[in-house]
Design brief:
alpha/beta; Urease, subunit C, domain 1; TIM Barrel; 2 domains; nine-stranded parallel beta sheet; eight-stranded mixed beta sheet; 16 helices; binds zinc ion
Length: about 450
């Protein structure tokens, strides 16, 4: 009762893949567990009574005319440990990027002071951009990975965190690897238990995630053991899948089947799995993901650097695959999910129109590939909730009160009159910076002033 409150103001949220709902001057009631208890619109019978009830108790927060609420974003693929190298070395080939930058950096988190400093910074930085839930890769080491989960808990972000499993000596350096399949599996299990122990200390909760880095960096024994662990603990799973020509062909050479099919054989394709990237999925893989209700974590910015292609978002989505949005720090350089939304639209339009002017316009692109802003907002919010099996991403009764309150005038030109609410939403999504985000709330708690 004591934490009950209501927010009066205007809001946007996705009701489905194509449609965004605008609520003008609504009242959003939040219960003491941080869930939305009811939404009242002007004209509803109870509107005035409800408003008065919270007003009299001093529990009504009223937004100004220049503020709107959006659901908090769900970042479905982000390497917290790569935060210090965001923006670095993106012009290098992937193997140099991994070998000279990424793996040496990831091994530094054994120093817990370093881990503490970086992880606090990445969690607070993503919160500032309105990311209320994040699916994180940490590193191969258990202790700093548990620390990341704790930091998410303390700073108020809903963190789903994975200790990365990587034990294949052929494609991981000695200084950054599990020394054996046994170690990879035992350390992952110990990690899951430690995170489950602290899970309920935080109102928004934190979650352990089974995290094979990707097929090339894991032995068969480890992949099999991780599949069993995921089942035993009913845990979330995350990995990279069919990211590039190289990664896609690697699995085919090793197993004679695609990486998606191989992951499935090891029990790693479930309704709680997020596969990052995945532009090279083959038709059977797409069907597999749709059948198993597995989600793709779409990383449009990093795909432009490392994926050798654009995710056929609309095609895969029309075949029933859920696709959530992700920043992929630091294959993607920006922690902003606004940036991911923008790049996803840009990339999809380039896929539709084609990019090589020397090719005749009729043959240049791939028809029906462009996604809309509404599609991208749905992906960054509702699809994330579906992926993780959590009631997040919408501003409806029963959902967690995870919101960002956005100033719609700062950084956004107002000299031309917008004709509709849709115009306002477009400007907000395309022009907002972190300084537009005035407040962020997760599970009914304000986490950023
Ligand atoms: Zn990644």
């Amino acid at each position: 009762m004591i934490n009950e409150m209501a927010v009066q103001g205007s809001a946007f949220y996705s009701v489905d893949f194509d449609k965004v709902r605008y609520i003008k001057n609504g009242i959003f009631c939040v219960n003491d567990k941080g869930y939305i208890d009811g939404v009242y619109e002007e004209g509803d019978e109870d509107y005035s009574l409800i408003r008065l009830k919270y007003l009299e108790k001093g529990k009504l927060k009223v937004l100004s005319d220049t503020e709107v609420m959006l659901p908090g974003f769900v970042d479905l693929h982000i390497h917290a440990s790569q935060w210090p190298q965001a923006g670095l070395a993106l012009d290098r080939p992937l193997e140099i990027w991994l070998g000279e930058y990424t793996f040496p950096l990831e091994s530094r988190y054994r120093n817990l002071d370093f881990a503490n400093e970086v992880y606090r910074d990445v969690v607070s930085s993503t919160l500032k951009y309105g990311t209320t839930t994040a699916l994180y890769f940490a590193t191969v080491d258990r202790e700093p990975s548990v620390l990341l989960a704790k930091i998410c808990g303390e700073l108020g972000q809903r963190g789903l965190v994975g200790k990365v499993a990587m034990d294949n000596p052929e494609s991981t350096p000695e200084f950054c690897r599990d020394n054996s399949p046994k170690e990879a599996i035992n350390e992952t299990e110990a990690f899951i238990k430690e995170v489950l122990e602290i899970q309920d200390l935080y109102k928004q909760k934190v979650y352990p995630v089974v995290t094979p880095r990707f097929i090339p960096s894991c032995t068969d024994e480890t992949l099999e053991g991780l599949g069993k662990l995921a089942k035993k603990y009913d845990a979330h799973i995350q990995t990279h899948c069919s990211e590039s020509d190289w990664a896609h062909n690697f699995a085919k050479e090793r197993f004679g089947i695609t990486d998606a099919q191989a992951l499935d054989k090891f029990g790693l394709i479930t309704s709680k799995t997020v596969v990052a990237h995945a532009p090279f999925l083959e038709p059977d893989d797409v069907k597999l993901l749709a059948d198993k209700k597995t989600t793709i974590g779409h990383c449009p910015l990093s795909n432009a650097y490392f994926a050798n292609s654009v995710l056929p978002f609309k095609d895969f989505s029309s075949r029933g695959v859920n696709i959530g949005m992700a920043t992929d720090i630091s294959g993607g350089y920006s922690p902003s999910m606004y940036q991911a939304i923008r790049q996803s639209i840009i990339s999809s339009r380039m896929l539709e129109d084609g990019v090589d002017p020397s090719i005749n316009g009729k043959n240049r692109g791939r028809k029906n590939s462009a996604i809309t802003l509404n599609n991208a907002l749905y992906s960054a919010t509702v699809s994330g909730g579906i992926a993780l099996g959590l009631p997040i991403g919408k501003l409806e009764k029963g959902y967690s009160f995870d919101v960002q309150i956005v100033d719609i005038e700062k950084n956004i030109p107002k000299f031309y009159p917008e004709k509709s609410e849709e115009d306002i939403l477009h400007k907000v999504l395309l022009l907002s910076e972190s300084s537009n985000i005035k407040e962020v709330w997760v599970q009914g708690n304000r986490v950023k002033c």
